Amino acid sequence: MIMRLSFVLCLSLLCVAFCAPRSIISRPHALRSFQVNDNRNEGTCTYTLSVRTSCLSTSYTRDQISLAFGDAYGNQVYAPRLDNPSSRAFERCSTDTFQINGPCAYQICYLYLFRNGHDGWRPKRVTVQAHASSYYAQSQPVTFYYGTFIPRGVWFGFNHCAAHYVAPS
């Protein structure tokens, strides 16, 4: 009886030490080997992007901002240039909304931003909402939280796709 009690106590202590839930909040990272699939003309699905620029960002940016996102099965949407200096996009404390057409994807699980220029830019968050098409169900909106300046000349973002296939490199 004491042996069983000792075993249960040890097992409980191990579970407390190793079974505790872990945070899935991650920080964006640079991905130098990332390759985009330039399938802009193959699009049959529409996505709404909501980009919130941090109040800690520069007042505005003239930098070129590109974006790529996709699912765990290799479906990728690429926007080669979201910025438009004449539209005053990406000003401090602002939210910009874009409609993008691209290949249909299942649940979006990765998103990377690319910045080219000298002004700097600090997004707070990017939300992607896929709209229903004839053969894909509408997926849940997904938000990627940045809160840091995007480095120049490198894809920078998140991959929450687990061990599934993600974008050829």
TrEMBL record:
Residues 1-21 form the signal peptide. Keywords: Signal. The keyword Amino-acid biosynthesis does not apply. SUPFAM superfamilies: Lipase/lipooxygenase domain (PLAT/LH2 domain). The keyword Signal applies. This is Embryo-specific protein 3. It comes from Eucalyptus globulus.
